[in-house]
Structures are given as structure tokens and as C-alpha cells.
Specification:
435 residues, alpha+beta, 17% strand, Plasmid replication initiator protein, Replication_initiator_prot_A
């Protein structure tokens, strides 16, 4: 019997490394939890030098993974970005409070390490078999920070919008990003969920939905005590933990991610059952898998946005016919499904009444409407970039601009509205290609 072991975003979610709790004391630096999910027994022994990651830290980690993926997953597992770009990609506001909290989140993510033991019982040999692995997320991090005080220069440090951040992921974690597993998360849904508890629970549920075959389970059943440990709520009073879960359940059901949540029994011995909405259409899943999208991501897209898939593929095929060469075809397909406005089409309100995809055409001699650039910051950014450079923008930079999501495009436009030297430096950090 073989027990598959991967150390990746799914495993750290399954291990409850990022707690569902919104706030945690910085003194929470070590923890040990034991729980069982299905027929797999887990023990997690965590150590977090700067405090256990929690709440919105998960948004920062997802943004880092997205930026790494869109940069082509560099072989050295390293990315260089600005604080403004990272906050924009995470969906957080860009003000002083968030720049201070961003540094704290990065410190927690860089300082957390854990030992994960997973084991299953082999009936034939009457023994437990598994594997023990110790790992982390970030191998090395460098940030340029500052403090307003002069008496204690090492206290209350924060980042500015232009602060450069260099992140090097541990090899196994970088490998999981290359596999696209983090794209099981729907950025639109994360944004709508709002509260950190609901977003965190969504991440944990998506991780545990992945079966050994790569498909997504339509139902999950847990012992409440095990589920609390999996969510990082094992040390909370039961009534407080239940309130946290109940609030998150309400949001996830309101957004149609969950169809039903039921409890049976009392106390920590109760049984908790989740039923998920919108099972994926097999035909759409097969179409995406044929384009090298991994099965769990394909099933997620087919469940979340079935009306967009064929329209998105049409746009992709038209661009490929025109000579476009994406850094990653599978990643571009996922991005096209996730971000229809960016790719120039509108998703249908219902599968039976699809609208025709609108393809961006070459500029004609007639002037473009003034509203077009206002609606698409990418076009404005390319104009500003050309003005700053004093020459044509490289084809790689044009492609990188067009591949930015809405948050990244907004961050680029903001950067390019600064002085020439700073604007070009920030643009280079955001696009990660030759200008």
C-alpha cells in the first residue's frame, strides 16, 4: 500500500497551518494537533517563529502563488515584487494600515514550519504506514522596510508602496504551484465572501474535497473535533468555534458554494456533513483536461463557471491562430475563464443563452471612444509605458500587461502615474519581463 504524500498548498490547508481564526495572539508560536479525515490519521506539529499564520494571511499567500504562476514559475523558485503589487493582487486596500499588516503577514508566512505525519492502517500487514515530512512555505525572504520612530528602530516596521519584496519558495511548494493546484480557488468568490473566516473555511473545504483520483467530492463528513483541528480551531472554546463556523457556513451557502450543512450529535463528538452545490459537467471537465488543465482545477472551473468555458476557449484559440504564444496555455485558459472582462468577452447569464464573444480588434484610423481606456487600464498603461520608455514597448511586456488580472492592471496603472524612474522600476517589478 502506498500513501501519496505531497507537500503543497493543499497539504498546508489540510494541516490547518493557516488558522481560520481572524485574530491570534503573537505568542501562539507552537501547536500540536491530531485528527482523522476519512481513513487517514494526521498529526501536525507546528512552529511559527513570528506567530501562527491566520485570517487574511491566506489572501497574501494566494496572491504570492498567483504572481509566481503568472511569472512563468521561475526555475529558481524566486519572485521580486513591490508591496503595492502584492496588496493589489491580494484584494486588500493600499493604505498605511495594510502596509504594516502586510509585513506582519509576510513574517508569519516566512517563519512557519511544520512536521506533518500522515498514516493509514494496512489491514493485510496489520500495521500503520505513512510518512513524516518537515517543511515550510518560504525558504528565503528579503523586504525593504522602514520605521517612523528613531528610539527603537527595530520595532513597528512597515512597508511602503514601492518597497521591493523578494520571495523564494521551498522547492516542493513551488512545484505544487507549477501543477496549478492553487487555482482550485475562485478569486471572485473569495472577494464576495468578505470575512476572513468564510474565505479561510472555503480554502480548507476545497483542499479536503480533492479525492485520491483527483476529482472533487460532492459531500464531506467529519467528526466535529477533527474538523476543528483541521481548521485551526482546536484551542477555541466550543461555543466560540461553532459561532465562527456557523457564520462562515451562512456566507458559503448564500454564495451557493455549499448546498447544505448539517450537525448530528452534541459537543465535540458531533458529526458534521457538508453537501456542495453545482456538480461539474463531465463534458466540460474533459475539454479542459484535454488542454492540460489539471483535473481538480478543471472540475472546479466546470462547477463554478460552466457558461464561460467554451467562450473562453474560443478567445484562446483565436489568439493562438494569430500567433500568440502564452507562457503557459493551461494557466491562460484558467485565467480566461476566471476573468472574462480582461479577455474581451462577457459571460452568459445562463448556459442556454450564450452571448457572442467580443474580440479586441486592431485600432482603426477612427479615434477610439474616450471611455474605452477608462474601462481598460491595460490600454492606458501601455500608452504611459511607451511615453516613459521613449520607444515601443517590448512584445513580452505587452503580453504580460494583457495577462494581468484586474487588480494587477490597476496596480500597474497607479505605478505608471509616478515619476519616470520610479514608474519604470515599479512596472519592471510588476510585469517581471523585459520592458
Amino acid at each position: 500500500m502506498e500513501l501519496e504524500l505531497r507537500i503543497n498548498e493543499l497539504d498546508l490547508t489540510r494541516a490547518g497551518i493557516i488558522s481560520v481564526q481572524r485574530d491570534l495572539a503573537p505568542t501562539e508560536t507552537t501547536w500540536v494537533t491530531d485528527y482523522t479525515i476519512g481513513d487517514v490519521m494526521y498529526r501536525v506539529m507546528g512552529s511559527a517563529f513570528h506567530g501562527r499564520p491566520h485570517g487574511r494571511d491566506g489572501d497574501i499567500l494566494l496572491a504570492l502563488q498567483t504572481i509566481f504562476f503568472r511569472a512563468g514559475c521561475p526555475e529558481n523558485n524566486e519572485i521580486e515584487i513591490s508591496a503595492a503589487q502584492l496588496l493589489a493582487a491580494s484584494g486588500h486596500s493600499r493604505n498605511g494600515q495594510y502596509y504594516a499588516s502586510l509585513r506582519d503577514a509576510l513574517m508569519r508566512l516566512s517563519g512557519v514550519k511544520w512536521t506533518l505525519i500522515r498514516t493509514q492502517f494496512d489491514e493485510k500487514r496489520k500495521r500503520h504506514f505513512g510518512q513524516t515530512t518537515t517543511t515550510g512555505i518560504i525558504a528565503e525572504m528579503e523586504v525593504m522596510d522602514q520605521t517612523t520612530g528613531s528610539h527603537r528602530p527595530f520595532d513597528q516596521r512597515e512597508l511602503s508602496d514601492s518597497s521591493p519584496i523578494k520571495i523564494t519558495f521551498v522547492p516542493s511548494f513551488a512545484a505544487s504551484i507549477r501543477d496549478g493546484l492553487f487555482q482550485m480557488l475562485d478569486g471572485e468568490l473569495l472577494s464576495r465572501l468578505g470575512q476572513p473566516q468564510a474565505r479561510s473555511l472555503y480554502r480548507v473545504l476545497q483542499a479536503h474535497r480533492l479525492t485520491s483520483s483527483g476529482s472533487l467530492a460532492s459531500e464531506l463528513t467529519f467528526q466535529l473535533k477533527d474538523w476543528l483541528s483541521a481548521c485551526g480551531l482546536e484551542n477555541e472554546r466550543l461555543d466560540n468555534a461553532r459561532r465562527t463556523l456557523d457564520a462562515a457556513h451562512e456566507r458559503l451557502m448564500a454564495e451557493k458554494y455549499l448546498q447544505n450543512v448539517s450537525f448530528e450529535g452534541r459537543g465535540r463528538a458531533a458529526k458534521l456533513e457538508y453537501t456542495f452545490s453545482a456538480p461539474p459537467e463531465p463534458e466540460l471537465v474533459d475539454i479542459l483536461i484535454a488542454r492540460n488543465v489539471t483535473r481538480p482545477v478543471a472540475e472546479t472551473l466546470a462547477a463554478d463557471h460552466p457558461d464561460r468555458i467554451r467562450l473562453a476557449l474560443r478567445i484562446i484559440d483565436e489568439r493562438l491562430t494569430g500567433g500568440w504564444k502564452p507562457r503557459s496555455l493551461a494557466a491562460s485558459i484558467v485565467d480566461a475563464v476566471r476573468n472574462p472582462k480582461k479577455w474581451g468577452y462577457m459571460a452568459a447569464d445562463a448556459p442556454e443563452s450564450p452571448r457572442k464573444a467580443t474580440v479586441k480588434r486592431k485600432p482603426s484610423k477612427e479615434p477610439e471612444p474616450e471611455s474605452e481606456h477608462a474601462q481598460d487600464p491595460r490600454g492606458t498603461s501601455l500608452v504611459l509605458l511607451k511615453l516613459h520608455l521613449g520607444r515601443a514597448v517590448s512584445s513580452k511586456a505587452i503580453a504580460a500587461v494583457n495577462e494581468l488580472d484586474d487588480a494587477g492592471a490597476a496596480a500597474l496603472l497607479t505605478a505608471l502615474q509616478k515619476g519616470k524612474s520610479e514608474a519604470l522600476r515599479l512596472a519592471q517589478a510588476i510585469l517581471l519581463v523585459e520592458l
